[in-house]
């Protein structure tokens, strides 16, 4: 079961609704390929988001470090 549903609007645009789920048996083979591709893209975007958050947390912790502050004061960084 996919944890999202693709909703097609009357003007042809598609929206991904993550509050709905889509069972595998409700999809045609072509739709299944599209859902698998989008699921992969969503997983990749979530991974990038987690990595960015980890980097932000790392920088924040580094900036609060007293040794880093001292190095900045003496112009070493």
Structure description:
The chain has 77 residues and is mainly α. It is built from two helices and two strands; from the N terminus they run ββαα. Strand 1 (5-8) and strand 2 (14-17) form a beta hairpin. The longest helix is centred in the middle third of the chain and has 36 residues, at 29-64. The mean pLDDT is 94.
Uncertain parts: none
| β-strand number | 2
Give the overall shape. Answer: rod-shaped
Q: What share of residues is helical? A: 55-70%
Q: Label the structural class.
A: mainly alpha
Mean pLDDT across all amino acids? 94
Biggest sheet, strands in spatial order? Answer: 1-2
Radius of gyration: 22 Å
Major sheet summary line: 2 strands, antiparallel
Overview features:
77 residues, two-stranded antiparallel sheet, 2 helices, 10% strand, rod-shaped
Write a brief structural summary.
The protein has helices at about 30-65, 65-75; strands at about 5-10, 15. It has about 80 residues and is mostly helical. The chain has a two-stranded antiparallel sheet.
């Amino acid at each position: 079961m996919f944890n999202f549903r693709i909703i097609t609007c009357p003007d042809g645009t598609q929206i991904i609704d993550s509050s709905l789920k889509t069972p595998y048996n409700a999809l045609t083979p072509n739709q299944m390929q599209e859902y698998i591709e989008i699921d992969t893209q969503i997983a990749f975007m979530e991974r990038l988001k987690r990595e960015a958050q980890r980097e932000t947390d790392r920088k924040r912790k580094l900036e609060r470090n007293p040794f880093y502050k001292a190095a900045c004061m003496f112009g070493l960084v």
